[in-house]
Every structure is written in structure tokens, then in C-alpha cells.
Amino acid sequence: MARSLSSLLHRSLCGGPFSPARSATLRPTQRVRSAGAALAVALAFGVLGGCAGNPAVHADARYDFGPPPQVATSGPMPAVKVLDVTAPATLASDKLVYRLSYADAQQTASYANSHWTMEPSALLTQRLRDVLSQRGTVLTGSDGVRAPVLRVELIEFEQVFDSQTQSHGAVAARVTLTQSGKVVAQRSFTAQAPASSADAAGGARALATAGDDLVAQISAWLSSQALVAGQ
User: Fold this and answer.
1) Are residues 109 and 201 in the same domain?
2) Are 159 and 98 in contact (CB under 8 A)?
3) Do residues 193 and 79 share a domain?
4) For the chain, what is the mean pLDDT?
5) 3-class SS at 55?
6) With contact defined as beta carbons under 8 Å apart, do 169 and 107 qualify?
7) Are residues 52 and 71 in the same domain?
8) Are both 51 and 70 inside the same structural domain?
9) For the segment 88-128, what is each residue's pLDDT rounded down to a tens digit?
10) Which of 84, 117, 166, 191 would you label with 123, given CA atoms 20 to 30 Å apart?
């Protein structure tokens, strides 16, 4: 029991998702184990100390989306202004967020020793501009050139655990295309990708894959909408 609890606490505090044990509701046969509560507290402090004392565990892993994918272009697009992707306060940090949907789908947490190199919205902005620049001129909001404006609002960006061993990266965004202050088109996009492992590394890879899928969807949608906006 002690070994199992220590393992769960170590995963939670040192970089892995923790499956919350619902210890508040005990069966009568389990109450004889109440003395284990004191052990649990001791183990918790021990694990915290272990995180600080073990250089391999303490090292903070930093993830990005990796090299940009090779995009099969379907023809050039007119110039477009791609504004910085916005995100809610819950995603306005470099935390690698996960959700244990099988235990409590209303709560999120983040890995203690695994982070993004920058906020997810910034990573998505960078990737979107890189991909679209392969098909035409990409401008920023500060450029004084008349062109369609693309706004992307990041809604979801997290690793979702469907069970203790199975998870996927989930990304969602709302995209709005405007011209001269008028809305030309708007659409919501979602993307998911399975994680190869039930940890931060697997989650980061899955989210990068899902992020690239989302960008590809936006690019395909924009290829027709941008021509309309430019008329």
C-alpha cells in the first residue's frame, strides 16, 4: 500500500498525472486502515523532498511543437494579417495542462516539472504564420497594409485522460476572418490526437500533432475565404 501510494504521489508532484483516490468514502472494512493516513502525509512530504533532491526529476522539461510539417500547397493566397492567437486566463501560461476525465471531468491540473517553451497561444501563432507563409504573404496587425484579418481564439489545449493509461491531446479554437472591420466568416475548429504514453512527453507530442491538424484545417478553410474577403 505504501509503495503504491508513494508511486502515485511521485507521479503527481514530479511530472506525471495523479489518479485521485476517493479516500473520503471508506467501506467499513477499510476503516481499519485509517492509520495509513499519517503515513500518507509522511509520504507526501517525502516525495516533495525527493523532487527537490533528485536532479533528474527536478530538471524542468520544456516542449514546443517541433519542426514545422511539410504542407502540400493548393495554390497561392493573397496577403493576410494573422493576429496573435488569444487564449483565456486558464491557458495564459506555459503550463502543460491535463484533465482526468475518467475521475473528474470538471477539474484540470498541470505537470510539476514539464512546461511549454512559451504559452500555447504563442506556439500556435508561430505555427500558423509559418504554415500560411508557405502559401502567401503573412502580415501582423501592426502592418499598415489593407488585407483580410485573421483572428484565432484558443478555447481548449490540454491532455485528456480517458483512463489511467489512455489519453489524447485536445485542441479547439474559434476563427474569425474580417475585412475593413466587417466579419466575413467565422468557424470553430477542433482537433485530437492520441498520446503515445500516459505522461507529459506523450501529452506534449499529442498536443503538437493536434495543433498541426488544427492549423491545417484553418489553412484549408482560409484558402477559399481569403479570396472572398479580398474582393
Assistant:
1) yes
2) yes
3) yes
4) 80
5) helix
6) no
7) no
8) no
9) 999 999 999 999 999 999 999 999 999 999 999 999 999 99
10) 166
